[in-house]
């Protein structure tokens, strides 16, 4: 438009600018849009599901929905270097909802034909776009609050060990923000209400594909949430996740998408162009920083702790037991000692006083994923304890310990299949608060009948139907009575080759229906 | 009267069509009616003055602000209230929320003051009682008043109303006229309409457009006076009349150049409007 200055016939005072700084108007719009987002059914549903899921996970210690109670019971003993990462996945739910609804909100004026009017108002289109993008911020802050509460809840547990990363904790709010800003950008690029749902489904497939099937470390880390899990908790310094670089990548990406949306809406100011360049640089730096896999030094350190944990452990002696823990786990030796003393209390004098070493072990060579397994130790009186504790890990440890007390070493303890199983299981569970519940927990089939595999930190042991019957019967009886019998007949009960029928007889349990093997599990 | 809007040489083409052709006008405080047939360029002119689209050529100022610069455009927009033709709404918003939203886009940032202002304009358009009702549950007339409230929020000095009474029933139109009369006090209002009665009742000045040109600019009385001695009654349609129609009384009302001895009638604004269009070669409405 060619404009010539036309002086008015008389000076007319324009209406005073009704707003203050223009940024305040954008914030007012962001607040309005945030309130509107909160009234969207999709956001409400996902918001509720997210909150309930997190609260449930806090209480139960589970990440999924399959357990209604905290059966595993490990929530009381969190490793904070894992707890930070566990806050991330559930925020994706809220992010998807915000992606869809922020997109829809940004398209509202176009869909409902108010653009003709709004285009003549003081707020520029790019500032409106900024308002839409900022409307997601309260949700990101809420996500941050949830993360802080959840992590704080874990950190305040008396059994908590390790250290969390603020960069890992930042992933949830950043993911929520990223999704919302992406929804706004999409609205500015493709003015169709169908684009966002379509892209959400496509992204899900692509992200799933990259997470599940991609071998490439660098493509895996392009996803906002990289939830590596499955392995035992590793020491903080061996985690090896490029969390800081990833947070930089996400921050840069959010800024980049935002700048793209602003530029697309006509905000071609010098500041926005400079911010775009900065965001691009931050994103590129983040990608470059997070792309390399674990360094050689890290891999060497992981191998060292896996193969020679004693080289980094600190040991403390309590009574006849030496507890060797990785540096971050030294505070947990009191919990281990409690379990050890419970087992020892059921054994007779010599066995109860036998020197033992509780050695903490961790399989770090394969990183954070995978299902680690530990070979049983052959050194006399040395018992393995893992980096998890609480719930089933306690009776599993007790069983491993009891089998070592009975058989001499961990490897031999894992091979016990004769009547000694009765003594092992009595030592392991007899002094527990809920012996039958613990029996159920330590068995692979979660029952107190029939034959089953009994879990220990290493190889476990087999328990026949007959042995189960005898042990269950003992656990029903008064503890003092059984303890006295066990102590009195300890030598015969722990003699290699003793049959289950004989063990039952020695302990005053009816030995009917134990089968041709005398109730042993050696042939199973 | 002070001149609020001053335009000269406004020209705008849509492809090969000239929507505005060298339009010049001056608007003062009070209500100015903008008449013209479909395609005359009324809406285009309003959109240019409302800064929705820039003109290809020409210039205009609103309260001394030149919208050709970013700062000037912002200043113009801060003085402007615009009610577009067939305005869009966000049907899930309440009347209050919609006007509040517009107030935010007008950069009224103080929340408490803004809400007071929203309540004030909703009361001004008689919607105080339904301000919490969703727009999709309001009648057409109420929606139009919501749109007017959105235009009025922030107390703009220059109000651009594009066919605000279109589609309203007679009672709603009457109520809307009252509103526009009230809102015209102390403001400059440019009111585009097809209804000559609206102009006759509301406006102190009138502009007639046709073919992208301004064909007339003056007072309603001056426009009416253009038909003085050119409206007559006859028992049958006069073939020499430029327009004619049978009235309820059965006689024909003819507009044009009357034959000698014709039974002359008192002209109306509509007669003046029809003759203005006809005199300039624009298509008049013949009923």
TrEMBL record, chain B:
It comes from the Bacteria. Residues 5-236 form the ABC transporter domain. InterPro entries: AAA+_ATPase, ABC_transporter-like_ATP-bd, ABC_transporter-like_CS, P-loop_NTPase. Keywords: ATP-binding, Nucleotide-binding, Transport. Pfam families: ABC_tran (PF00005). GO terms for molecular function: ATP binding. Transmembrane segments: none annotated. Belongs to the ABC transporter superfamily. This is ABC transporter ATP-binding protein. It comes from Streptomyces similanensis.
């Amino acid at each position: 438009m060619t404009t010539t200055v036309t002086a008015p016939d008389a000076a007319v005072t324009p209406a005073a600018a009704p707003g203050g700084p223009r940024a305040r108007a954008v914030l007012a719009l962001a607040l309005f849009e945030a309130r509107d987002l909160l009234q969207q059914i999709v956001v409400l549903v996902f918001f509720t599901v997210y909150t309930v899921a997190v609260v449930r996970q806090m209480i139960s210690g589970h990440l999924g929905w399959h357990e209604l109670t905290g059966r595993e019971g490990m929530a009381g003993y969190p490793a904070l270097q894992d707890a930070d990462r566990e806050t991330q996945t559930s925020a994706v739910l809220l992010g998807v909802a915000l992606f869809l609804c922020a997109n829809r909100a940004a398209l509202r004026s176009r869909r409902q034909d108010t653009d003709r009017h709004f285009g003549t108002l003081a707020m520029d289109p790019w500032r409106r776009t900024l308002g839409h993008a900022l409307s997601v911020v309260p949700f990101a802050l809420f996500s941050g609050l949830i993360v802080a509460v959840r992590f704080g809840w874990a950190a305040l547990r008396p059994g908590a060990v390790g250290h969390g990363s603020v960069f890992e904790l930042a992933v949830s709010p950043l993911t929520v923000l990223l999704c919302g800003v992406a929804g706004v950008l999409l609205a500015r690029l493709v003015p169709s209400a169908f684009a966002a749902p379509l892209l959400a489904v496509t992204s899900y497939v692509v992200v799933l594909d990259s997470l599940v099937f991609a071998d490439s470390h660098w493509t895996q880390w392009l996803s906002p949430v990289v939830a590596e899990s499955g392995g035992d908790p590793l020491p903080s310094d061996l985690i090896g996740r490029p969390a800081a670089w990833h947070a930089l990548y996400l921050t840069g990406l959010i800024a980049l998408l935002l700048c793209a949306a602003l530029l697309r809406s006509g905000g071609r100011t010098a500041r926005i162009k400079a911010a775009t360049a900065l965001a691009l640089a931050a994103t590129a730096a983040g990608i470059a920083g997070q792309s390399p896999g674990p360094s050689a030094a890290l891999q060497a350190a992981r191998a060292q702790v896996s193969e020679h944990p004693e080289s980094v452990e600190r040991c403390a002696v309590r009574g006849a037991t030496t507890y060797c823990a990785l540096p971050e786990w030294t505070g947990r030796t009191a919990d281990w000692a409690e379990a050890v003393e419970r087992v020892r209390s059921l054994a007779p004098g010599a066995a109860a006083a036998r020197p033992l070493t509780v050695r903490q072990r961790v399989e770090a060579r394969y990183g954070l994923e995978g299902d680690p397994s530990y070979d049983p130790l052959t050194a006399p009186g040395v018992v393995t304890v893992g980096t998890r504790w609480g719930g089933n890990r306690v009776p599993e440890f007790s069983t491993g310990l009891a089998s070592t007390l009975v058989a001499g070493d961990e490897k031999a303890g894992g091979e016990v299949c004769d009547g000694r199983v009765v003594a092992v299981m009595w030592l392991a569970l007899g002094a527990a608060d809920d012996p039958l519940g613990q029996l159920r927990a330590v068995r692979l089939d979660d029952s107190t009948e029939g034959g089953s595999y009994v879990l220990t930190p290493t190889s476990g042991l087999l328990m026949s139907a007959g042995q189960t019957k005898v042990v269950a019967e003992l656990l029903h009886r008064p503890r003092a009575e059984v303890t006295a019998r066990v102590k009195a007949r300890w030598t015969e009960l722990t003699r290699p080759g003793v049959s289950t029928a004989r063990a039952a007889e020695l302990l005053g349990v009816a030995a009917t229906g134990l089968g041709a093997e005398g109730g042993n599990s050696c042939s199973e | 009267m002070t001149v609020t809007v001053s335009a000269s040489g406004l020209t705008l083409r849509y492809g090969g069509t000239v929507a505005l052709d060298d339009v010049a006008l001056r608007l003062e405080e009070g209500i100015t009616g903008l008449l013209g047939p479909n395609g005359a360029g009324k809406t285009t002119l309003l959109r240019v003055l409302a800064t929705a689209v820039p003109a290809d050529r020409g210039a205009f100022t609103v309260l001394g602000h030149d919208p050709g610069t970013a700062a000037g455009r912002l200043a113009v927009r801060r003085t402007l209230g615009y009610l577009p033709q067939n305005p869009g709404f966000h049907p899930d918003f309440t009347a209050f929320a919609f006007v509040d939203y517009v107030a935010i886009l007008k950069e009224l940032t103080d929340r408490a003051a803004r809400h007071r202002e929203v309540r004030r304009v909703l009361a001004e358009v008689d919607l105080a009682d339904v301000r919490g009702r969703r727009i999709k549950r309001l009648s057409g007339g109420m929606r139009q008043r919501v749109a007017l409230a959105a235009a009025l929020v922030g107390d703009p000095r220059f109000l651009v109303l594009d066919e605000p009474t279109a589609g309203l029933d007679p009672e709603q139109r009457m109520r809307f006229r009252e509103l526009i009369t009230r809102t015209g006090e102390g403001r400059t209002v440019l009111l585009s309409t097809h209804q000559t009665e609206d102009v006759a009742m509301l406006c102190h000045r009138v502009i007639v457009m046709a073919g992208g040109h301004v064909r007339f600019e003056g007072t309603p009385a001056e426009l009416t006076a253009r038909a003085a001695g050119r409206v007559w009654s006859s028992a049958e349609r006069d073939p020499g009349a430029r327009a004619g129609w049978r009235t309820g009384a059965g006689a024909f009302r003819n507009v044009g150049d009357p034959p000698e001895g014709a039974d002359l009638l008192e002209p109306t604004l509509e007669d003046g409007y029809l003759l203005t269009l006809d005199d300039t070669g624009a298509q008049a409405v013949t009923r």
